[in-house]
Fold this protein.
Amino acid sequence: MKIVVLDGYALNPGDLSWEGLNALGDCVVYERTPVDKIVERAAGAWAVLTNKTVLAAATLAALPDLRYIGVLATGYNVVDVEAAARQGIAVTNVPAYGAASVAQLVFALLLEMCSQVGHHARLVREGAWTRSPDFAFWDRPLVELEGLALGIVGFGDIGRKVATLGRAFGMKLLVHTRHPEKYRGQAAGVDVAFVELDELFSRADVVSLHCPLTSDTERLVDARRLALMKPGARLINTGRGALVDEAALAAALNGGRLAGAGLDVLSQEPPTADNPLLQAENCYITPHVAWVTGAARGRLLAGAVANLCGFLAGLPRNVVNGVDPTAPAVS
């Protein structure tokens, strides 16, 4: 069986092992695959694994031997899952592998905005404290998290982990989810106020986005919702860049409407040089690294191997497009 990994570098730049996939068949790993090389490299493959390499309907149609696509991520919008289903190609993802790491970065961004550790450490290195007449030196307002309202949009594995950390900091929890009935009365929701989306934006001191990107959620955070937010509130996005209208957010930051934004994702990655958020006031951007801890990537790779093993054994896991293993010949 031929297995092709189209873009393995992001998941495994050399610190993890592909041994689990190698044991399942003839595995070829490419660090990156440009669009014009996908069909050539995946030709004859029974299974293809992809992280961000897009597998569109036309590409799938040119791969008649393909029966399995393993997405090396939780989000699977890089694959035309309906076209795959029509061809009898199963598509799997790996949910929940990065919840702890993503939630950790949410608070790294929030603490940087509120405690200004990087900024003040840099000033100390530059001699500002040495020149200060006082024992304590700061030049920006510092903010305590306890008692602030944390608004969480989406209450899946990551959203719930963020709630756990927010609770530990003494924050009040506001949540918007499509299915609040799943959580009311449970431990995860015992001190959570489930509210409508506009109410969350108007009441929260911090809004953190953890919902999937769909046609309904694209530009969820637009100029209207930004205008609902409290003056001095903060926005965090570790979900998908297109959840946010970037021009509207840049305007809100540059106009002093918001105190800050912490973003690990942008609508185009890498961003173009003219992305307005790159120069926006009080905008803290990290280069899509929330999922990159060694622990999270190790779980992701193990989950991808387990998905393929299960499918081959007739025990499918995490199939997102409804295709069951129909036992095509594996060679």
Observations:
- The chain has a mean pLDDT of 95.
- The longest strand covers residues 149-153.
- The domain at 2-97+294-312 is CATH 3.40.50.720 (Rossmann fold).
- The two ends are 5 Å apart (CA to CA).
